[in-house]
């Protein structure tokens, strides 16, 4: 099949979106499919197996707190007057009021470029949008291209947790302004199919976006599995590992810090994210008040080889999230043979059930989290052996080749269902 894939950001360092498009396109290409990737900045590393079509924008959202008058002006070789182009001017204005215009504007720019390619003679079987869900996708569908979209979890979840932590009317207004929930829901209900990674996300798409169950396909999520480490002994001074964004309260680091305060003093925590910033005063104060500064280290993002080595050195990986559309750290931990403690949140119970091991505790409960960690450390040899034995099940469920096969199956189902009513764009 010939696929036009759309992703409004492509860098592997800007989150799971870049990793998803890199690994999925590689596997689809190996299985014989031809993909043109329409992608916005920050752009991905070289992807020689696809044709990359860069969709430029001025990234006004990233400059919204910059006070310099010259900061928003387009950089050479573009002229300052290009700021007056309709989509550029729209993005500049609405970003200053707290809206996130990037997905909407990208979808229109990408649709326009896809149409140019079609006019030049390129034939696409369908469009696969990844997490954008802008109105440009409906434009392409109206022109005759079947459309599917990947949504790992709908923005209704992020908005719900953001509202729960907001402490003022201004913060709540900012939350309601920021998330383009209505736009994404409208688009999601009108395209041929949605692809997601767990039954928890299926339920959220049905309740949050109002999409029919028959149009949602759970293909799981692919994982670049780490090397499996040989059997080993527990560290004399136990080491916990947290992999996630400290700025995202949905990841539950605050609850893990409170749980650490209830554990013996020889237990330490390594956090794979950047050190706390001024915007995270609450978490910083919590660490200081609990006198945990010497037991918690923030170590930034690690290269892949260093991460795989670290997974073979720590005693327990902890995933204290309040919701997960998939739960990548949980899969990586068990695949490496490292015991896991996770919350019963979102897709994490599904991941643990498929792997056949791991300890689950209540979400948002530091005491339950501390008890789960304490129990896992006390029975570490058993938990370690179970994690090692789970490798084969994890490979069967979450390898990228299997996920690509399931994704291509969705493509074929959509093409079969639209064959009788489809027209050439």
Low-confidence stretches are none
Terminal CA distance reads 16 Å
The first-level CATH class name of the largest domain: Alpha Beta
Classification by helices and strands: alpha/beta
Q: Total number of β-strand segments?
A: 13
Range of helix content: 40-55%
Number of helices: 17
Biggest pleated-sheet summary: 7 strands, parallel
CATH architecture field of the largest domain: 3-Layer(aba) Sandwich
Number of domains: 2
pLDDT averaged over residues: 90
Question: Major sheet: order of its strands?
Answer: 3-2-1-4-5-6-7
Inertia-based shape: globular
Note down, in words, how this protein is organized:
There is one protein chain. With 425 residues, the protein is α/β, with parallel strands linked by helices. It has two domains: 2-222 and 400-418, Rossmann fold; 239-398, Glycogen Phosphorylase B (Rossmann fold), CATH 3.40.50.2000. The protein contains 17 helices and 13 strands. The chain has a seven-stranded parallel β-sheet, sandwiched between helices. The chain has a six-stranded parallel β-sheet with strand order 10-9-8-11-12-13, sandwiched between helices. Helix 4 (135-142) links the parallel strand 4 and strand 5. The longest helix is centred in the last third of the chain and has 19 residues, at 400-418. It is globular.
């Amino acid at each position: 099949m010939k696929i036009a894939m759309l992703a409004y950001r492509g860098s592997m360092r800007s989150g799971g979106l870049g990793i998803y498009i890199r690994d999925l396109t590689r596997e689809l290409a190996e299985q014989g499919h031809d993909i043109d990737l329409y992608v916005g900045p920050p752009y991905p590393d070289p992807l020689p197996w696809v044709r990359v079509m860069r969709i430029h924008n001025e990234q006004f959202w990233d400059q919204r707190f910059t006070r310099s008058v010259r900061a928003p002006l387009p950089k050479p070789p573009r002229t300052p007057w290009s700021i007056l182009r309709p989509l550029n001017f729209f993005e500049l204005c609405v970003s200053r009021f707290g809206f996130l215009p990037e997905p909407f504007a990208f979808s229109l720019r990408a649709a326009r470029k896809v149409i140019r390619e079609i006019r030049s003679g390129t034939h696409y079987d369908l469009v696969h949008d990844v997490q954008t869900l802008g109105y440009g996708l409906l434009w392409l569908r109206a022109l005759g291209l079947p459309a599917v979209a990947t949504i790992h979890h709908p923005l209704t979840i992020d908005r719900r947790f953001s509202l729960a932590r907001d402490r003022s009317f201004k913060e709540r207004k900012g939350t309601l302004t920021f998330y383009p929930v209505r736009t994404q829901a409208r688009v999601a209900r009108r395209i041929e199919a949605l692809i997601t990674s767990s039954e928890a996300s299926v339920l959220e798409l049905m309740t949050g976006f109002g999409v029919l169950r028959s149009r949602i396909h759970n293909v799981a999520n692919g994982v670049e599995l780490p090397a499996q480490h040989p059997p080993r002994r527990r560290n004399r001074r136990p080491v916990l590992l947290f992999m996630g964004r400290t700025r995202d309260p949905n990841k539950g680091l605050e609850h893990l810090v409170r749980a650490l305060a209830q554990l013996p003093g020889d237990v330490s925590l390594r956090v794979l994210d950047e050190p706390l910033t001024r915007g995270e005063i609450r978490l910083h104060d919590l660490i200081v008040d609990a006198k945990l500064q010497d037991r918690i280290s923030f170590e930034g993002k690690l290269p892949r080889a260093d991460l795989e080595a670290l997974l073979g050195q720590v005693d327990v990986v902890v995933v204290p999230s309040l919701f997960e559309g998939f739960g990548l750290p949980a899969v990586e931990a068990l695949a490496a043979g490292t015991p896991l403690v996770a919350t019963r949140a979102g897709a994490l119970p599904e991941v643990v059930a498929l792997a056949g091991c791991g300890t689950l505790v209540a979400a948002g409960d530091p005491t339950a989290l501390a008890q789960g960690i304490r129990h896992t450390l006390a029975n570490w040899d058993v938990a370690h052996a179970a994690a090692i034995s789970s490798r084969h099940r994890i490979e069967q469920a979450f390898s990228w080749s299997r996920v690509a096969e399931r994704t291509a199956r969705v493509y074929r189902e959509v093409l079969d269902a639209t064959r009788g009513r489809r027209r050439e764009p």
